[in-house]
Amino acid sequence: MNRKAFRDGIKPGWHYFGRKMDVADFEWVMWFTSFRNVIIFALSGHVLFGKICSMTVPQHRAVMYMIYGALAVLGSMGLVYLMIILSHCLVLYSVALAKQKWLCYVAGLCCLASFKVEPFGSWQSGFVTGAFDLQDVLFYGGSTFTIMRCMSFALESSERKEGIYSIFDLLKYNFYLPFFFFGPVMTFDRFHAQVSTRELRRKDDEMKSIRVNALLHVGAIVAVDIFFHFFYILTLPSDLKFVTRLSDWSLAGLAYSNLVYDWVKAAVMFGVINTIARLDHLDPPQPPKCITMLYIFAETHFDRGINDWLCKYVYDHIGENHDSIPKELLASVTTFAVTTLWLGPCEVVYIWSVVNCFGLNFELWVQKFFQLGPFAKLEAKLSGAMSRRIRAAFGAVNFWAIVLYNIPALSSLDFALLVTKRLLVTGFPVSTLSIWFITYCGVQLIKERERILAIKEEEKSDKAKVE
Q1: CB neighbours (10 Å) of residue 98?
Q2: Membrane spanning segments where (predicted)?
Q3: What's the rounded mean pLDDT across residues 14-37?
């Protein structure tokens, strides 16, 4: 922790334990250290305000959420920023009146590009005066999430057979404070249906579930804070001279740990927001699936809200049932093109998009290849257990492909290349095969768990039919 190369990433932490803290992740430091009190104050105010509205005027609670959210945006970012947001909302609402989907896509993507492509992004941010550490994050976060929500509104309005939703519905949707700056994105149809419900009833033990989840998130925050004082997993990859001296197992563990941390961060940040949304009687997008449980590219995502948005309006819209290889290729390329624009075009994002798009399509090609007659007949002769073993062997390879394809975006391209070279070239065959075997055992456990859950779900479904 006293290494000179790590001076920027490791700062003073627990003085009484003599430990320094890994502060390489700006988002985590912002949420739970630098601006913790401001975020707690704003979200606590929303919870209190929302509870009062739910008890007194439940039929108008969406309007109250909108007013509180707009005032919070006004107070934190100023009038000019609020006017920029409203102008984009007005543009996309005007486009929605035409009820032409292609026009909604073109206008929405142009608005998104105006924040993500230079010099348009800097030109708009230049209107917002003031200077505080969180300003850029709030500006681009609120702006880009606003565009995604407005596109969802426009596309849902285009599909509506009779009439169109009002601009008031769009503003209620966009200025819901918990989702405004950091997401997740809930598609307009789901949000509108849920906030329009007048009878606010909770399921059995729902409050208990909310309290348990809140405690789990607090526990996860404490655990990550402890972890950052002892394992500097985010800062280590920045010094290639240091990581080159690590063993193959250490490098593999470091790469895997970076992905696990990114999942934990997403699960905690979206989990905190989702807890507040559930208190408001909403059913928000769930946190992402644990990275350790992923061995299929089709299920890989770190933001379930954006994933649901992309699947509904791009991937499933073009790919339909995903059986046709040409349609799947077009759907995946288009999806990753939109994702690239959403993340902000740059070299690392281009590389990340290309390799993950290839992984998704290659997975389908392999699947189609082994569905051919001879292979299908061979698998039919195998027992269920043996079939799962063979699939787990491929799943283990897929797991490390997912890890290596996502490391450039989370760490650096040089670190990803170093890990790839050590695992596949210099570490072959001992390190390569031993790490693959351990991963294979893990995938087997996951597949067994999925099999048991599927059996239980089937039994529950059969029981419901009998009743």
Answers
A1: 15
A2: 28-50, 62-94, 175-193, 214-234, 254-277, 392-411, 423-446
A3: 81
What residues does each domain of the chain span? 34-196, 282-466
Q: How far apart are CA 37 and CA 40, in angstroms?
A: 5
With b for 16 or more beta-carbon neighbours within 10 A and e for fewer, the 254-282 pattern comes to bbbebbbbbbbbbbbbbbbbbbbbbbbbb
Structure tokens at 87: 């102008």
Among residues 115, 109, 110, 133, the alpha carbon closest in space to that of 38 is found at 133
**pLDDT tens for residues 178-223?**
999 887 899 999 999 998 887 777 777 888 889 999 999 999 988 9
d(CA 301, CA 335): 13
Answer yes or no: are the C-beta atoms of 300 and 402 closer than 8 Å: yes
Structural tokens at position 26 = 């700006």
**pLDDT tens digit sequence for 78-96:** 899 999 999 999 999 999 9
Instruction: Find all residues with CB under 8 Å of 213, minimum gap 6, and list them.
Output: 271, 274, 275
Query: Are 134 and 26 spatial neighbours (Cβ–Cβ below 8 Å)?
Result: no
Instruction: With CA atoms as reference, report the closest residue to 367 among 328, 402, 333, 313.
Output: 328
Give 130's pLDDT tier (boundaries 50, 70, 90): low
| Token pair in block for residue 131 | 């200077």
Rounded distance, CA 420 to CA 108, Å? 38
Give one DSSP letter per residue of 379-413, joined into a string: HHHS-HHHHHHHHHHHHHHHHHHHHHHHHHHHS-H
Cα 407 vs. chain centroid, distance in angstroms?
A: 15
d(CA 221, CA 228): 11
pTM over 0.85: yes
Q: What is the pLDDT of residue 133?
A: 65
Give the CA distances from residue 334 to residues 91, 317, 327, 328, 364, in Å, rounded to whole numbers and listed in that order.
24, 11, 10, 10, 16
Q: Please give the structure tokens belonging to residue 342.
A: 């959403």
Give the relative orientation of helices 79-96 and 61-77 as an angle to the nearest 10 degrees.
130
